[in-house]
């Protein structure tokens, strides 16, 4: 019988965006572009998901270059992969503020083993996007940043939310990281597709770290309250 780890790894292996993107936008698929991301994420999921315990989904926006774009694990940058998850990573030790917040929250929740036994974090769009500016600098891009990109990504998003649900996650509640455009998109999509009975939106970790860092503990407390309501 397959475990959550087996099914998640298989999901990551099959991820492939074949649609047409707007000019200047590139897809970011760490599982095809980086041998280390598949290797490291496989170790991670074998370590924390080799069972069939019920879990709830948490959906962020889409992968970023310095977190899951490096490790293949949502909201887990190389620094956290090594120091917190105790899994080796050979490559640039990038830092993602969102990852810092998430692992502080996980510590307050009760630790990595306990958190990942209850939850699985991924994204509304499971692959990321980048745009290259006139200065040649590559930056992260969100699936909702332009109507054209959102339209291009829409079939891919629907297909892969369903594939993640087929892994076996709970559908009574889905947590959404982001109380702005990500929440609005996911709620509208859920109204159409009825993936989940309820969506609970929480402020995005990046927003908290960028604009509300002094109140970080208050947000951590809020996250844990909302998580525990569902688990009780």
From TrEMBL:
Pfam families: UDG (PF03167). Residues 48-227 form the Uracil-DNA glycosylase-like domain. This is Uracil-DNA glycosylase-like domain-containing protein. It comes from Mucilaginibacter lappiensis. The lineage of its organism: Bacteria, Pseudomonadati, Bacteroidota, Sphingobacteriia, Sphingobacteriales.
């Amino acid at each position: 019988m397959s475990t959550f780890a087996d099914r998640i790894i298989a999901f990551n292996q099959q991820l492939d965006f074949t649609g047409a993107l707007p000019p200047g936008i590139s897809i970011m698929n760490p599982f095809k572009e980086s041998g280390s991301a598949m290797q490291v994420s496989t170790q991670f999921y074998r370590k924390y998901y080799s069972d069939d315990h019920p879990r709830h989904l948490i959906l962020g926006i889409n992968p970023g270059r310095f977190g899951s774009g490096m490790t293949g694990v949502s909201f887990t940058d190389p620094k956290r992969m090594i120091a917190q998850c105790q899994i080796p990573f050979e490559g640039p030790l990038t830092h993602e503020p969102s990852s810092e917040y998430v692992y502080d929250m996980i510590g307050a929740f009760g630790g990595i083993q306990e958190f990942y036994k209850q939850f699985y974090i991924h994204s509304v769009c499971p692959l990321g996007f980048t745009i290259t500016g006139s200065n040649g600098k590559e930056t992260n891009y969100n699936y909702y940043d332009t109507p054209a990109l959102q339209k291009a990504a829409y079939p891919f998003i629907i297909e892969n939310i369903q594939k993640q649900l087929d892994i076996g996650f709970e559908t009574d509640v889905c947590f959404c990281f982001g109380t702005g455009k990500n929440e609005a998109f996911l709620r509208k999509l859920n109204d159409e597709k009825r993936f989940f009975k309820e969506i609970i939106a929480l402020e995005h970790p990046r927003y908290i770290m960028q604009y509300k860092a002094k109140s970080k503990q208050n947000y951590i407390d809020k996250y844990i309250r909302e998580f525990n309501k569902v688990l009780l």
